[in-house]
Amino acid sequence: MRLLHPAIMAFGFPLFLAACGALAPDNAAKPAQSAASVDRIYAINCGENHAKDLSAWTTPADSGKPHVFSNNCYLIKHRADWLLWDSGNPDRIAAMPGGLRNPRGTSIAFMKKPLVDSLREIGVAPADIRYFAMSHSHGDHSGNANLFAASTIYMQSAEYDAVFGSEPQKYNFMPANFEKLRDAKIVKLNGDHDVFGDGSVLIKPTPGHTPGHQSLLVRLPKAGPVLLSGDAVHLKSNWDNKRVPSINYNADQSTRSMDAMDSLIKATGAKLWINHDFEQSAAIPKSPAFIE
Q: Which range marks the domain in which residue 139 is found?
């Protein structure tokens, strides 16, 4: 196991806010040619994270270079059901114009608009979200997880064990972000999962950044398939160079996950949406606009 960078938690932002291998199926998915598609997807701006030192995600050559990371949540409409992927920075940060600085002063988290407000603009309330899943459990992805305790929640078993085990801080997880989920309906996965049973949305295990990190393949009716990276990769330059940040939990798992993602992209023709890549994210329409 690779320990995290001592000055950075997880994604790299100590949002103290409050086994690998191939992408083997947990339950069988339909072949790509017969897979259905969702109705649409909303990319929701769920904050920004401003880092003082990019090198923890790239190479020592970027030491001392500041960087802004985007941070999105994704709301997926499938017939009468809603799936929310990730929950972003905590909504309470929206009331902090200067953002929330981490204890070491290495990064600042911002939230322009609360997630609940963004959902309301779409006509959705947290209680309407039938399915909820996070790429992983770091603070910038789980900041509003407690809002979805009534949803069916999908987590890889390794992530569940890390979050609800005796030492969540060891993985830079904040227990308060999950306090209302202890009695929720959590489906523990050990591989792929076909969320709607028709191949339109597939959860893929991509461990390495955290023990049970997962990514999401979404088939859109017009735009075609997209693969939501989570933090399996943070930046396009990292993807292009198959670079593993020093902050990751396990470097070998990270490399194998990127290789598996690459194979999946080639097999499906999916576009890779890199959640924290600011330039790429800026080109994706944000809610209440949607993509079909």
A: 32-282
